[in-house]
Design brief:
The chain is mainly alpha-helical. It contains ten helices and four strands; from the N terminus they run H-H-H-E-H-E-H-H-E-H-E-H-H-H. Helices cover 57% and strands 8% of the residues. Helix 4 links the parallel strand 1 and strand 2.
Length: 196
């Protein structure tokens, strides 16, 4: 249908409910609402705000620029707005565009083309600020947008290290042994699911 390989969180959770008899002890709506609340709580806990970027966005807003959030993310606009509210920065943005709602991504460039069309601005009058070299810079430039690349190489190297560790059976066995052997940890089994 011309969409990118993207999904909506609500649809994924509905399929999880449909495929899991144990989750059907509650209504589908209750299951989806609970799962979304848990997912939102996890995202709120692990996300941090880059105060330098927020300061720059505040300055842009004060100078009369309109700022949008454009993200390849599995949350829809409503949940994304709740994240921004949690961080106290929702007021900075006039619009939120999320790949999961449009079923189009920044990576492919389709989301940028939709945003250009919606904004009514010529592409060179749009500035994309982001940390993904391909999605936020290369793809945006291919669609005529101006870009600023935020260097997050230290963060990406942490993700790469964690990915390597998660593929290392010896490391995983050590983590599991540590969790299971600690008698002071309540619900040790739950920690295993959260770790992986």
């Amino acid at each position: 249908r011309g969409h990118d390989l993207e999904c909506r969180l609500h649809d994924v959770l509905a399929e999880m409910w449909d495929g899991s008899p144990s989750s059907q002890r509650m209504t589908k709506a209750a299951f989806i609402a609970l799962a979304i609340d848990v997912e939102l709580a996890v995202e709120q806990r692990v996300q941090t705000v880059d105060t330098q970027v927020v300061g720059a966005i505040r300055q842009l807003r004060e100078s009369g620029f309109t700022c949008w959030v454009v993200s390849d993310f599995y949350f829809g606009k409503e949940l994304f707005l709740r994240l921004l509210d949690h961080h106290g920065i929702a007021d900075l943005f006039a619009n939120i565009e999320v790949s999961s709602e449009r079923l189009s991504t920044k990576r492919s460039g389709k989301l940028y083309r939709q945003i250009v069309s919606d904004s009514g601005l010529p592409p060179p009058h749009i500035l994309m600020i982001g940390d993904n070299a391909h999605s936020d810079v290369v793809s945006a430039r291919c669609n005529g947008l101006q870009t600023i690349h935020l260097d997050r190489s230290a963060q990406y190297s942490l993700y790469e290290r964690l990915t390597r560790q998660s593929n290392d059976i010896t490391h995983i066995e050590g983590v599991l042994d540590g969790i299971l052997s600690n008698q002071n940890v309540v619900f040790r089994e739950l920690a295993l699911t959260l770790h992986f």
